[in-house]
Queue: 2 jobs
Job 1
Amino acid sequence: MSGYLRIRNLSVALRDSGARLLRSVSLEVAAGEVRGLVGESGAGKSMIGKAVLGILPRSVEVVEGEIWLGDVDLLRLPPAERRKRVGANAALIPQDPLTALNPSRRIGGQVTDRLVDILGWKRAKAEARALELLAEVHIPDPARVMRSYPHELSGGMRQRILIASAFAAEPRLIIADEPTTALDVTVQKQILRLIAAMQARHGTTLLFVTHDLGVVSKVCQSLSVLYAGLMVEDTTVADFFRAPAHPYSAALLAATPKYTDPWASLMPVSEAVIDAVRAEVDAAETEWRDAR
Amino acid sequence: MPDEPLIRVENLRVSLADMTQKPLIGRAPRLEILKGLSFDIPRGAVVGIVGGSGSGKSTLGRTLIRLLEPTGGTIRFDGRDITHLDEAALRPMRRRMQMIFQDPMSSLNPRRRVAGIIAGPLRLHGLDRVSARVDEALDHVGLPRAFRNRYPHELSGGQRQRIGIARAIAMAPEFILADEIVSGLDVSSQAQVLNLLERLVKDLGLTLAFISHDLSVIRRLCTRVMVLQQGEIVENAATADVFDHPQAAYTRELLDAIPLPDPDQANWA
Amino acid sequence: MPRSIPGCVMLDGRAAIRRRLGLRLWLSGGWLALVLLAALLAPWISPQDPLAQDLMSGRLPPFWVPQTEPGFWLGTDSLGRDVLSRIIWGARVALIVAFVAGTLTATIGSALGLIAGYFRGWADRLISRLVDIWMAFPPVLFAILLIAVLGPGLMSIIIAIVVIDWTRFARVIRAEAMNQGAMDYVASAQVAGMPRGRIMLAEILPNVLPTIVALLSLEMGISVIVEAILSFVNLSISTDQPTWGGMIAEGRISVHQAWWVLVFPLIALFLTVLSFSQFGEGLKDRFDPVLR
């Protein structure tokens, strides 16, 4: 089988110290699949999405690996071509709906930008499509919202707009980076349902970065668990929630709150588990250094 | 009077100037954040305060310990009316009520070492054995005494939050307000901090108000739950009742919206 | 604890930043120390009397030109005065103005800024309006007027600089104090029952100190320039005391016959002002506990 997004042996490291933030990560997302990318802060889960989209911070670089989008390895393309390829085929739903929208521009322009700049559409056609999209993400009175500024809208509303603009150019891959972390639970539920429905309708491949296993169980079919840049588990959602294979991911699941069962959840991750997974990271690091 | 609640709140109102609606000339209109709340916090209770953003839960917390002054109603602490006391009159009361903050990074002065952070309030209130009390507080929160000389940025998120807890309990207060203290932490540190808090409540006989948006955490820790929606209390009952038989529609909505780590959860799309 | 692995990585990054800062701090600090020594030891180290005129040896070129006279390392001006000795004596005036004017400006401006930013309310309104009004005066005109009223002299220059420039500190420190005042550690001090005045001095001041130091060093550089400008327009102290600005003014007239009379004091001025700003930036980063 071959997925739409295939990452092989991807290592990302800090430029000045050479310390690796992603340690030879490989993963594959089939066309139309929703895959969760889970880990605690600093695990490198967002870094994968950023590497795919080519928006790594300046202090960080890819030192090894392949990122295949369809039949092209993005890392072998010249930068301009890579940007074009990514722009036409992939999009991002960012975490913070407040800073992701330019506060001094109206919504309409921000949603149609991609269509005009990347697909070369006429402004009028792009606007008609944007209206359609805003209606599709259940925004009441889309015509008025198109003329609004971001600060006039609620957080949930802004996140809907970001979802609409991510789907606007019909990308084959969408990377959602903690898209509901900044939202209230009730709004989170609506937004997750919306993302799931949009994904299903458009058949988009979705890489869903989150720290919340509860969210993963709701929207994903498969998931990868990261610890300190090392992928420790890569499995289906059904298997994972029945019986996680790796002790660290099992501990992570046991630590996740579950109000229906508060005394069996929220279990602290034991020192032994942390020591074991850290030893695994060290071993992987030694092996990698020796191989070079 | 042992029967009297530690905190009694009656018809509490707080409004703030709404600067976004301020006309070019003249005063900004008042925005009602809390719309007349009445409730008791009994001694030894652990009260969870839940609500979405804009529910007024943080404003309520900060008003309870008088970081904000109410516009109406009364707050009694141990029988004494503290509603409109000024800073100087509040000072002796401050020792008895402490707060743990949401963001452990911004609530610890980056230029002070751990020992200074914990000792500061102790010295201010002229307590004796300051150094010993700092050590005891560190013991209580399960951090090595060697951490005394560290700066906040040298600690992990979970460790910083323990320092915040140590600072609060070092004063041996009767009441602690905890405002979203685990929401910024990873699940593994979250569980550790919760366990710690659970133990401290038991060992030290604390009265705790625990503000959170996370009902799972509330259920684990709290004896009572108060649900806020847009500045009003929609439900205030024992924890088991709230979870087993939620009365308010909003409480049910909140419960339904929580994504459980379970692919077979009912009521979810 | 699970974060300690990326944590180590972070520390590596910081070390690199520190090394780069170190060089900057050393170079600028070295030049300033040199100027300071020259100013302190002027009577003993200056090779000639800075005021001694000798029309027979006027406009002697610097030492590397073959037919020059020994003993006048950087040449002489049109009146036969030794350029190097005058630069060394000029450093006295420059540094006195820099330190006294800089420190006074910083103290007054920061105090007002701190009060406005932390206490807000009527104190803020009063101070902010004062700053707005003050800044509407054209500064050079203001200085010239002031000195015209006070009479020329070192004291007048210092007063002029303080009166004009305190707003620079007040504005920046007000904004910074407002930011810090919104932090929870301030609320926490309030919960502990710390009086407001003490919160300002013990909690907020240490956290705005790096900014004050950086601004102060910048202000010292600016003071040196202002003194030079005022000397240039002949509004500084009496002509029998050598100043860099005065030398530049004199050198300008004969630049085609004796470029060195203009160029050497200009270099001294340039390096000193640059060093002040670089030294401040370096100190600020050194002061920052997060980078330490």
Job 2
Amino acid sequence: MRITNSMMVNSMMRNMSRNMVRMDTIQQSLATGKKFLKPSDDPIGVSRSLRLNTDVSVMDQFKRNVDDAMSWLETTEKATDNIIEVLQRARELTLQGANGANTVEERKKISDEIGQLRNQLVALANSSYAGSYLFSGYKTDKPLLKEDGTYDLGGLKLSTDENINYGIGVGENLGINFIGQRVFGYANDGAVDFDKSVAESLKGRQVLNGAFVDFTTPINLDASNNQFKLNYMGTDYTIVLNEPAVYDGTPGQALSDLRADIESKLTAIAALNGKVTINQEGGRLYFTSLDPAVADNSIMLKNDSLDVKLLGFTSEKKSSSVVNSGDKTQLIGAFDKLIQDLNSDNVKGIEQALTRLSGHINNINAVRAELGVKYNRLELTSNRITDDTLNLKALLSKNEDADMSEVIMNLKMEENVYRASLAGGARIIQPSLVDFLR
Amino acid sequence: MRTTFGTFTIATSGLFASQRSLDITSHNISNSNTEGYSRQRVIQRATVPIGGDPTGIIGTGVETYDILRFRSEYLDQKYWGQAKSHAEWRVKTEGLEDIEAIFNEPSDTGIRKVMDEFFASIEELTKKSEDITNRVAVIEKAQTFVASINTMGRQLIDSIRETNFTVKNKVYEVNSLAEQITNLNKQIFNMELGGNKANDLRDQRGLLVDKLSALADISVSEITGENNSKYFNISLGGITLVNHYNRNKLTVHNEPVPGVSDLGAGDISQIRWEAPDGSTLGAVKITGGELRGLLDVRDGDFDKNAYRGLPYYLNQLNRFARDFAREFNVQHKAGLDINGNQGGNFFDEPSGAFAENWKNITCINFKVSSTLRSDPALLAAASQKDGISNNENAKMLVGFRSKKDIFFDLSGGQKINGTPDDFVKSFLSTLAVDSNQAKRMSKNTEAIVVQTNIKRMSESGVSIDEEMSNMVKFQHSYNASARMVTTLDKVLDTMINRLGLVGR
């Protein structure tokens, strides 16, 4: 091939400019520390880098959420610890008060201290974290209790499903608050006895088990009161029971027989078959959802031709234990009753108070246990998030960070090539025949 | 019979031939750096000999009869065929690199980052939804998010306008080149009537065609007519652009393009043929060259134009803004504000061409609702009345980020699958792959063009060494011819002045 001078100059220029382009790329990754600067430099790497960056930022947010949730739980834990201390002191005092040998003045003193403890409990019920009341559900701007021991909530209701959820992972939420009635209980009819059903209500058992029937009085069914409506997932289903029938507790007419009857009617309705069942526990029948996605408390009972109360069913409302403003608190109620009994020297009442207090102590210990479990879970989550973040950052770095030693080496190599081509070019271009003609 | 002074004629013809060759050598050296120049060589031959002499046929000297231009028509055609694809891909690479710069990923100012921050602020809100600072933070982050979408949209629009301007300029450039070529055609034709080649003018014309071949996909032909006269023709998209002395003109026809012009890009110039009376004729078919690249970058919406250029990414951004705003509004309106009232629109849904207001949202008019901006209490974080810490709707808004059924197709009919992140990632990946491919194509086609050009230069380029040795060669032959004249002079001197003096 015939080679001319300008061809040599051109190809030298072209090669050197290519060399410069490569040097520029390497310089850029040296200056930025990144393997790529534009999507087109590495389409897959950039797309992965976008995802990893988002993941890291999401993890950072989860970490902040977990930290906040932990502080909230710590404050709640402190409040419940104090409540336990109050209750234990009250129990000691009650034991003292139950001693028949006490004088009127001594019992007065005890009653005064119990009164102080009661006020302390009200204050504890209104504990707050960063300006938010701990036990008031979504109404964090409203105190839980009034001075008189009834629910305050600024005139509003408090329902057990008012869980403030923090996101602590992808699709992973943790309710950080404990609802007031869970800790302090409620006594609609003013009952302060800590019996089994109330204990269940304290644990939010009603919520878990949905609509229920208490078998208290003999139930007489006839054509006028043999049916009721069950609301499931927004649809009413009419349940017609066998009649005439009397359920008075005698064999063949026991609560279990009523249960069997209702169950057979439930299974007869296709939409409810396998979805809703009825369970018996002690003297109570519960409607229970079999579908894990449907909460028990979404099952509602409605009366139609009969007053459901005749059947013993809770009346027409969700069976979730909604507390209204002005409802009495079981715990404070127990204290009030105790003070009353101490003042009136009712030894039997004082002794009953001991059982009630033990019941409440057990309940609050259960709350503390749950707190502990949640806190533990948060600690584990926090560790996991830290690990995940580290892993993600390592991946991110591997994906987009340039290996400095490699970059510097490449730069040196390109520099050498550049020098060589400059030197070679200078030698090749310079002489032509002109230089040798005299 | 030998003539006395015949040898003089032979020697002078040698002098003249050497001189002519030296002229051309000098011309070559002078033009060694002229763009498009092809080296020339004098072609010489022995003159017609004289017969009838008993010695044999006697030579009568040398004559120069042509000046040859070293140029391969085959390589020219090859180059003109290849230049267009390199130019096209080079322009596309530049266009797509611009779009990459507009989206600015990976960086701390791209969509990903502002979206991350927007959702992080909502997540913060879920923890204390009654806190006014949290609410203001969400609205501010939303503003940043919206503003970066707006800016990107405007930059894409600006880019369309600039590309359109370049298209117009390139059309004028084609016209100007065609005119210059026509003028050269006239000169070349007139000069070549005598039968000789107008070498230097042909070089100039070749250079103009080189330039034209990078602008659009032309086909070039030179037809030999009667008397060996040459007619030079260029056609563009199957229609004659240059026909010997005549040419057709291109013009631009400005018309609005829906979805582009109404967003502020102005009228788009379509390339048309122009009739001699100045009226506009049909569209010009352009399948290659810089113009094709520019048109693809300017008009590529992956629908009417099969390429993914500026309008495609503008549409993607429009869809992103439109569907994001719509679904986010639906979720926001499902919630309650701090006063327990039903939430309003989070993003504005302007009225416009479409009856459904959300369909009127574009990346340009995408905005946070002004009522919400003036009163952060209207942010609907709650799901039910009673309770300012109810964060359920805010949680749903956080969950929005992983929602997979947000986006519709372009017309707003069919849903497509993917989260907001997937959507952004998907069109950025498309951009990355397209840009990467354009770069690679540009590099590959460049290598081919360079290869052909090297071959062309190998054939036509001036080599100084070669010219120098020719110079020496011709100089020597000149010297020798001159010495011949001197020698003949002496011979004649002897013959005329000294011969026949014996008897004096």
